[in-house]
Design brief:
Layout: H1 16-21, H2 25-28, E1 38-39, H3 44-54, E2 58-63, E3 75-79, E4 86-95, H4 96-104, H5 116-123, E5 142-143, H6 149-156, E6 162-169, E7 177-178, E8 180-190, H7 191-200, H8 206-209, H9 213-216, E9 224-227, H10 232-241, E10 246-250, E11 264-265, E12 271-276, H11 285-291, H12 296-307, E13 318-319, H13 325-335, E14 339-343, E15 349-354, H14 355-368
Parallel strand pairs: 1-2, 3-8, 9-10, 13-14
Antiparallel strand pairs: 2-4, 3-4, 5-7, 6-8, 9-11, 10-12, 14-15
Helix pairs in contact: 4-10, 6-14, 7-13, 7-14
Length: 371
């Protein structure tokens, strides 16, 4: 053992941080459930129902092998246990935001959904036709189970939100991220899975969880959002154009006479709510259809009444620059969200902390050797 390894030695004479660094992706997926997927010819109605029923934000799209080029040039195959022959190919990932952007008409020159017939028509297209509407679904990654936790954190700290993990892979001695894979089956690993795993090992990570948001440099200070007068249709279009999975909703009284259909710089404005794909995970299709032309605040209140879920306009998830990273981690896990807005003492927004930011900060701390 090197002298530097003796700084913080736990039971058994092993540095707790070293124990965590020696763990693999296989340690993260021990209790993962069966992969939720949708067939390439499923309608968007069926896709939305599958995402809602399984309480997930994204699912891989499965198709017959040999007929498709996978997202990002990938070739992710599931093979038959007996023969080893390919039985299906995962051609991409569909997210809740892909569906929303399709409805809002970002991919074609079309006006807003103006009638119930328009909405029904849009929801009857096959899911394979909307893969890649958003940047996140342009690529499909696998992460080998032999990959170290540190390398997994590096992948998820660069904007990758989820990856397929092959089980009983036919690709021998591989570690890291791959675009070509063949395995008997897969499971999904997400940023949230990694955050929960790190929380389970908070003793090993006490040196990072006890730091402040400001001290760790975990907050992004450039934040764009919408006002409380923006319509849901326009908010979705803004999220698409800005490659955003969530936006803060700002008090329009702070911004004077502006175009409420566009993104705004939120710095130093007062936040009154959040609109995100996560909040729409359990949204009934009928509620979504009737709410596209409501203001974003009215829509979220209606969704709260229908679903009984947390109202993101009444229960703001915020932190201060001096809040501990451990407190932020507790908030994202307890509320099933992917970011927390950073505000000052007056409640004005000054930044945000995302799962990507937390993972990046934790990884830097782990490999730096700092106490």
């Amino acid at each position: 053992m090197k002298p530097t390894d003796l700084k913080k030695v736990g039971a058994g004479g092993v540095d707790p941080r070293r124990r965590l660094k020696d763990m693999l992706v296989s340690d993260l997926i021990k209790d993962k459930r069966r992969l939720v997927e949708v067939p390439y010819n499923a309608t968007l109605v069926d896709t939305m129902n599958a995402l809602t029923a399984n309480k997930v934000l994204a699912a891989p799209v499965a198709a017959p092998p040999g007929h498709w080029i996978g997202a990002g040039g990938s070739m992710i195959l599931e093979s038959d246990k007996q023969t080893g022959a390919a039985r299906k190919q995962y051609i991409g990932m569909v997210t809740m935001l892909d569906v929303l952007c399709h409805i809002a008409g970002n991919h074609v020159d079309t006006a807003a959904v103006s009638s119930e017939d328009d909405f029904e028509r849009l929801m009857q297209v096959p899911v394979s036709s909307i893969i890649g509407h958003c940047i996140e679904s342009l690529s499909l990654w696998t992460l080998n189970s032999n990959t170290s936790i540190v390398d997994c954190m590096e992948v998820f700290s660069k904007g990758v939100h989820r990856a397929l993990v092959p089980l009983h892979s036919q690709m021998e001695n591989v570690a890291g991220v791959e675009l070509v894979e063949s395995a008997l089956r897969y499971c999904m690993l997400t940023q949230m899975d990694l955050i929960k795993f790190l929380k389970m090992h908070e003793e090993e990570l006490s040196g990072v969880l006890s730091r402040t948001v400001r001290n760790l440099g975990a907050a992004s200070d450039m934040v764009f959002g919408v006002t409380d007068k923006a319509k849901v249709m326009d908010v979705i279009k803004c999220m698409y154009r800005g490659s955003l999975n969530a936006v803060p909703i700002m008090d329009s009284r702070d911004y004077g006479d502006i175009d409420h259909s566009q993104l705004i710089n939120c710095r130093d404005g007062k936040i009154v709510g959040t609109f995100s794909a996560t909040d729409l995970r359990g949204c009934p299709i009928s509620t979504l259809r009737s709410g596209m032309n409501l203001t974003v605040i009215d829509f979220l209140e209606k969704l709260h009444e229908v679903s009984g879920r947390r109202d993101p306009t009444r229960e703001l998830l915020t932190c201060l620059p001096e809040s501990l990273i451990g407190e932020v981690v507790d908030k994202v896990i307890d509320n099933h969200v992917h970011r927390v807005w950073v505000v000052d003492d007056q409640g004005s927004i000054v930044g945000l902390v995302s799962l990507t930011d937390i993972i990046r900060g934790a990884r830097v701390w782990m490999i730096s050797g700092e106490a």
